[in-house]
Amino acid sequence: MGEAVRGSGEECNWSVGRWAYDNASQPLYSGLNCSFIFDEVACEKYGRNDTRYQYWRWQPDGCDLPSVAKFRN
């Protein structure tokens, strides 16, 4: 459990939710340039051409979890 939005006082159950398509804020990084991605999940490194899988983010049910795009710039 954690706060949905800092200072809102709402509690969030992060384990209950859905995958939401978010092409406004994704992808946040390239798998080719990120040293923190393990080889087992380095899709681009091993030839995966499409990056559509990077446009999904977890959205907990009943929580106001804003898109990363709102925090950029």
Write the layout of secondary structure elements.
Layout: E1 2-3, E2 11-12, E3 17-21, E4 56-60
Antiparallel strand pairs: 1-2, 3-4
Q: Could you describe the 3D structure shown?
A:
This is Trichome birefringence-like N-terminal domain-containing protein. This protein is mainly beta and 73 residues long. The protein has a domain of 44 residues. The protein is built from no helices and 4 strands. Strands 1-2 form a two-stranded antiparallel sheet. The chain is elongated and about 40 Å long. The mean pLDDT is 75.
First CA to last CA: what distance? 28 Å
Q: List segments where confidence is low: pLDDT < 50 over at least 5 consecutive residues.
A: none
Task: State Rg.
Answer: 15 Å
Task: State which percent range the strand residues make up.
Answer: 15-25%
Largest beta sheet, briefly?
Answer: 2 strands, antiparallel
**Strand runs, count:** 4
Assign the structural class, choosing from mainly alpha, mainly beta, alpha/beta, alpha+beta, or little secondary structure. Answer: mainly beta
Helicity range: under 10%
Give the helix tally: 0
Overall shape:
elongated
Observed structural traits:
two-stranded antiparallel ribbon; 4 strands; two-stranded antiparallel sheet; 73 residues; mainly beta
